[in-house]
């Protein structure tokens, strides 16, 4: 049971069925109440009409015996002001809900026709006058052996010589009861059938709507099992949420595939880059162990330093890939450029005071990498400029070397990429400096680009937000 209602399709079907059931019950109750009220009102109107007809005959002086009380086959009683039944339908055998339960007329107890009697009676009606107000009640009666429920109308009439008489006339409620009963029967039969149809349609529609979701789930399970990130989930030919989910899933898979492939290349390139200095250092140590007089101490130190720098670069890239956020330290970028350029041959600095917020250590690494790159490619001079351009702090590092070809101006920022002119390990590093610089710039909300320098070499421009 838990597994059944754990599915979206089952919950949607149950929810839709319950909502429709509540709506049907509310609508059915409203219809029944309205139908019953209308039919009771109709019966009351019919009973009032009969009572006024009898009252009109009484007001005209018609004797009790000549009253037409059996024409409509409805129960009628006439009661005087003493509560005595003076006229009634001929076949009336039992009655309730009126002023008296008597069914056989009796002789009036006395005349009330004198003026004094009229004054003593206190009636507001004049002789021959019929009251405007009608009192309606529910009751039952047995007429000619048939019992039924009735709506009774009680109407007063003032008759000369007879005093105030009350006419009770009934109208059968069989039509109301029959109509309400029929409506209830229809509802009891129709509502379950309608709910079954709603449940079936909701189940089928939901299954059809969720079929692409099941396809996405199955494909994702297959991708997980096979670890093949090149596969993609099927995108339904619709424009609904499921199609957008499939497209977003495929975009996520593409990003994941790119990330995994980048990580694989990174691991492979790092292994390749680490292999050379380690092998060189091992060779020198093995030679020194066999022939101490041949130890190239300076070369061993250089290889160790190179290995240390490479390990530091790899560690920083790993932290950047892990989403490490830069620290919110505020410092002067111009002062940082002056400090990082100090002691470098051929480097001139023109630095304004521009404060930025971020990781001072990481930005120091960026400037160092840019200066190292410029120093390797410059013929004689490297210039550093720090200025503010609106909401941006701008650092420009330019050299007078050969520059970077237009086709390679994005490749130089890829990891382990060294252009042909700098492929010799003696001339360049492992190809991580510019990649690290751009990653740090992006982490700080900035950019790092390269273009031609005024002196003909390369100009690397670092832009950081001033906040």
In short:
The protein is an alpha+beta fold. 48% of the residues lie in helices and 19% in strands. The longest helix has 53 residues, at 174-226.
How would you describe the overall organization of this protein?
The protein is an alpha+beta fold and 467 residues long. The chain folds into three domains: 1-219, no CATH class; 241-321, Signal transduction histidine kinase, dimerisation/phosphotransfer (DHp) domain (Helix Hairpins, Orthogonal Bundle); 329-465, Histidine kinase-like ATPase, C-terminal domain (Heat Shock Protein 90), CATH 3.30.565. It is 48% helix and 19% strand. The chain has eight helices and 13 strands. The chain has helices at residues 8-59, 115-121, 174-226, 241-290, 297-321, 333-341, 360-377, 433-443, and strands at residues 76-79, 85-88, 92-96, 135-143, 146-159, 163-172, 329-332, 347-351, 355-358, 382-389, 392-399, 447-452, 458-465. The longest helix is centred in the middle third of the chain and has 53 residues, at 174-226. The two termini are 58 Å apart. Mean pLDDT is 85; it is low at 112-122 and 421-427.
């Amino acid at each position: 049971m838990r597994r059944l209602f754990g599915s979206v399709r089952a919950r949607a079907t149950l929810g839709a069925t319950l909502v429709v059931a509540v709506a049907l019950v509310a609508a059915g109750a409203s219809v029944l109440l309205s139908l019953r009220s209308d039919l009771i009102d109709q019966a009351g109107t019919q009973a009032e009409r009969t009572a006024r007809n009898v009252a009109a005959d009484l007001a005209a002086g018609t004797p009790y015996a000549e009253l037409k009380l059996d024409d409509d086959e409805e129960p009628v009683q006439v009661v005087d002001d003493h509560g005595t039944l003076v006229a009634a339908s001929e076949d009336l055998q039992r009655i309730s809900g009126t002023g008296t339960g008597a069914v056989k007329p009796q002789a009036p107890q006395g005349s009330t026709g004198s003026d004094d009697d009229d004054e003593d009676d206190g009636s507001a009606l004049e002789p021959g006058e019929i009251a405007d107000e009608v009192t309606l009640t529910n009751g039952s009666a047995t007429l000619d052996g048939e019992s039924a429920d009735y709506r009774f109308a009680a109407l007063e009439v003032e008759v000369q010589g007879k005093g105030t008489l009350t006419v009770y006339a009934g109208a059968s409620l069989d039509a109301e009861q029959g109509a309400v009963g029929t409506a209830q029967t229809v509802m009891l039969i129709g509502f379950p059938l309608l709910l079954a149809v709603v449940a079936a349609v909701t189940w089928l529609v939901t299954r059809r709507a969720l079929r692409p979701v099941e396809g996405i789930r199955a494909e994702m399970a297959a991708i997980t099992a096979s670890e093949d990130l090149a596969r993609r989930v099927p995108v339904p030919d619709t424009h609904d949420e499921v199609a957008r989910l499939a497209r977003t899933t495929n975009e996520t898979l593409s990003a994941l595939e790119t990330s995994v492939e980048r990580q694989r290349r990174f691991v492979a390139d790092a292994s390749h880059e680490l292999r050379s200095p380690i092998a060189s250092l091992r060779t020198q140590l093995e030679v020194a162990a066999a022939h101490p007089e041949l130890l190239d101490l300076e070369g061993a130190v250089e290889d160790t330093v190179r290995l240390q720098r490479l390990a530091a670069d790899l560690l920083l890239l790993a932290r950047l890939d892990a989403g490490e956020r830069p620290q919110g330290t505020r410092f002067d970028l111009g002062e940082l450029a002056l400090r990082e350029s100090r002691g470098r041959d051929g480097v001139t600095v023109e630095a304004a005071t521009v404060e930025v917020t971020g990781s001072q250590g990481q930005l120091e690494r960026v400037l160092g990498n840019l200066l190292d790159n410029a120093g390797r490619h410059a013929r004689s001079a490297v210039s550093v400029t720090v200025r503010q351009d609106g909401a941006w702090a701008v650092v420009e590092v330019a050299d007078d070397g050969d520059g970077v070809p237009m086709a390679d101006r994005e490749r130089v920022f890829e990891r382990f990429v060294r252009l042909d002119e700098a492929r010799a390990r003696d001339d360049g590093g492992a190809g991580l400096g510019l990649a690290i610089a751009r990653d740090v710039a992006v982490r700080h909300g900035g950019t790092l680009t390269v273009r031609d320098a005024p002196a003909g070499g390369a100009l690397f421009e670092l832009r950081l937000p001033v906040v």
